[in-house]
Amino acid sequence: MSIINKPDYKIFANDAKTGELETFPDLLRGWGVTVDRTAGKPPMEWFNALGKRTDEWMMYLSQRGLSEWDAAIDYPQYAVVQYAGKFYTAKKQTNGQRPDQSQNEWMLFADAIGIAKSIADALNAVTDNANTRLEKSKNGADIPNKPKFVDNLGLTGTVDLAKNAVPKSAITQHSGNSADHVMSQNTVTNFLNGKFDKSGGQIKTDDKFLSLQNQTTGAANYIEATDSVGNVRYRLGCMHSNSELKIENIAGKTILSIRDSAIYVNGNKVATEPAMEARYASKFRWLHSREIELTKGRYPELLDGEVMTMVRGSVNDAYFEARNARLSFLQCLIDNQWVTAKNA
């Protein structure tokens, strides 16, 4: 028989539309159920269900390699299953006995094929071989050619580096320009403390002054401030692996977050990008409303959005007295629609 090529792993009828797939009504009876249900004619929906069931079983076995142990299945002798991350083989026919709790019925697959014994034998052989060649009590004194031994271990370079190690006299306690001296750890620490004032200060720049880079892609990334005893006052940044940006006022118990094109306060959505765009006024205009005559000392009640845009009076009077007025509506262009303003 020829070798079968690897299938494409597509599940039959996996994308069936609504009404094209129906669970087979009686798997144990089989097609005989059609005599009672569909006048002996099996429908398409049942064929789809059986094809999908078969492909899903094949996918299950392809994914796991060995099927998982199940209490409802009878296992013959030498059956192989997996359970809790380990592989087991049946010593005899068994049913309902968990592999990890039934040593009379099951044994580890590695023990069944002798892997554990082979490893133990190999380790014992290595130990015996080492003991016959080197005696621990002599601490290497029985090595006939020590330089050659070091060379065979690939440690010649390490020995040479040790010969050229920095002497204590070359370790200085101050900074300088020497090419063959190094500063001590204490000197470096003091030098850095002098460069970076931990008690406060200013960083002056016209560009980016601080960059936080994660060691792991998608990890949290934020700045945290504490008081003198270590209590968190606030946090700023991404607190989790997602892209949500937060400003957390711990003491004030207030959290402002930005995610999914929206703004939230303490988890409550207060604004969204579409909502803000919908309420954004891009233009303003005056729309003539009416002209009225004024009674001395009295002004009319204005309608919503109505403002006084012009007043006429007599120029011959000793004082200017309003005679009539022009009123107009103030309108805003919001979401491509002119909307009349509302009075407060």
From TrEMBL:
**What are the recorded Gene Ontology BP terms?**
carbohydrate metabolic process
GO molecular-function term, one example from the UniProt record: hydrolase activity, hydrolyzing O-glycosyl compounds
Q: What is this protein called?
A: Putative tail fiber protein
**Top-rank lineage group of the source organism:** Bacteria
Write out the GO cellular component annotations.
extracellular region
